[in-house]
Amino acid sequence: MNVNGTRYRTIWLAEDGRSVDIIDQTRFPHAFETVRMRSLEDAAHAIRVMQVRGAPLIGATAAYGVALAMAKDSSDNALHTACSSLLETRPTAVNLQWALDLARRALVQVHPDSREQAAYDLAARICDEDVAMNMAIGTHGLEIIAQIAKTKAPGEPVNILTHCNAGWLATVDWGTATAPIYMAHNGGIPVHVWVDETRPRNQGAFLTAWELGHHGVPHTVIADNAGGHLMQHGEVDLVLVGTDRTTATGDVCNKIGTYLKALAAKDCGVPFYVALPSPTIDFSLSDGLRQIPIEERSGTEVSHITGRTRAGTIETVEIVADGSDVANPAFDVTPARLVTGLITEKGLVAANRQAIAAAFPDRVRGAA
């Protein structure tokens, strides 16, 4: 996507042909900075502290982390160590495990003398395929937005509510939930996005609003708890979110608070769609509520907040009463019964085992 007139992906090979550059997402929304990863440890750190985040981008970063490890030591032991250490960085996003399993299976068959280049080639291919999948998701999601637009008065926007950041900053490019929005906007369909702030890390206010603004998409940042109110008053035409892991039965794990949006959407008759590339589907799981591991992050993400003061400095302040315990589950699970449909690179898929298996038979066989 474009940033100040320059086209960027979120991750790319540096000029030296071996280091890897990323956009440091911990610096948003007040600064746009890039970071150079030169080692496996750099890649693991970037994932762990959320310099990169979003399931597809985590997977792509992990693939490049393996390549960086192979550039230093291409032995079987180093390959195993790299995959194991990267897998431990974050537990919920299944794309991480998918990318590492793919790298392990592919590279173990390559002679160590050729393994470094093979690892870089694989990482590049994962990135390119992610972009292609997101563009396909955008095309299929665009059809939904276009149909809603036909019911509107001339010039009246389609109002879309999203939660967290499933934009191009969460992928290699285009995004999942935002790809249809960008394509609708580019195609002249009036759209307006209600952007949940998405506490506690504020990915909506910090990231989604930033990228929508740079692309010129009309949007309004709202408090997380405002979505239900807007739906009750007919100000939301559809809810469109991403996911970090979706089960073979259509249960959807996404940023904490997504479940509440789905409940409100169901009560108000608002369609609730989830945009995802197929690597985000975990065909080994059937019950999202019981089987998906939910990452518990540091309580300081809830008790403290970072922002820009009127003087222009960036400061972190405490906002919770002294002595209070703080819990911070990072994700929740929305049952398939609340999901109107899954927007994938293969098209719109019903959130049930039969439809998902029919859309991705090769993935089902691979998980058997």
UniProtKB/TrEMBL annotation:
<comment type="similarity">
    <text>Belongs to the EIF-2B alpha/beta/delta subunits family. MtnA subfamily.</text>
</comment>
<dbReference type="InterPro" id="IPR027363">
    <property type="entry name" value="M1Pi_N"/>
</dbReference>
<dbReference type="InterPro" id="IPR005251">
    <property type="entry name" value="IF-M1Pi"/>
</dbReference>
<dbReference type="GO" id="GO:0019509">
    <property type="term" value="P:L-methionine salvage from methylthioadenosine"/>
</dbReference>
<dbReference type="InterPro" id="IPR042529">
    <property type="entry name" value="IF_2B-like_C"/>
</dbReference>
<feature type="active site" description="Proton donor">
    <location>
        <position position="244"/>
    </location>
</feature>
<feature type="binding site">
    <location>
        <position position="203"/>
    </location>
    <ligand>
        <name>substrate</name>
    </ligand>
</feature>
<dbReference type="Pfam" id="PF01008">
    <property type="entry name" value="IF-2B"/>
</dbReference>
<dbReference type="InterPro" id="IPR037171">
    <property type="entry name" value="NagB/RpiA_transferase-like"/>
</dbReference>
<comment type="pathway">
    <text>Amino-acid biosynthesis; L-methionine biosynthesis via salvage pathway; L-methionine from S-methyl-5-thio-alpha-D-ribose 1-phosphate: step 1/6.</text>
</comment>
<feature type="binding site">
    <location>
        <position position="90"/>
    </location>
    <ligand>
        <name>substrate</name>
    </ligand>
</feature>
<dbReference type="InterPro" id="IPR000649">
    <property type="entry name" value="IF-2B-related"/>
</dbReference>
<feature type="binding site">
    <location>
        <begin position="254"/>
        <end position="255"/>
    </location>
    <ligand>
        <name>substrate</name>
    </ligand>
</feature>
<keyword id="KW-0413">Isomerase</keyword>
<dbReference type="InterPro" id="IPR011559">
    <property type="entry name" value="Initiation_fac_2B_a/b/d"/>
</dbReference>
<keyword id="KW-0486">Methionine biosynthesis</keyword>
<feature type="binding site">
    <location>
        <begin position="53"/>
        <end position="55"/>
    </location>
    <ligand>
        <name>substrate</name>
    </ligand>
</feature>
<keyword id="KW-0028">Amino-acid biosynthesis</keyword>
<dbReference type="GO" id="GO:0046523">
    <property type="term" value="F:S-methyl-5-thioribose-1-phosphate isomerase activity"/>
</dbReference>
<protein>
    <recommendedName>
        <fullName>Methylthioribose-1-phosphate isomerase</fullName>
        <ecNumber>5.3.1.23</ecNumber>
    </recommendedName>
</protein>
<feature type="site" description="Transition state stabilizer">
    <location>
        <position position="164"/>
    </location>
</feature>
<comment type="function">
    <text>Catalyzes the interconversion of methylthioribose-1-phosphate (MTR-1-P) into methylthioribulose-1-phosphate (MTRu-1-P). Also catalyzes the interconversion of 5-deoxyribose 1-phosphate and 5-deoxyribulose 1-phosphate. Part of a bifunctional DHAP-shunt salvage pathway for SAM by-products.</text>
</comment>
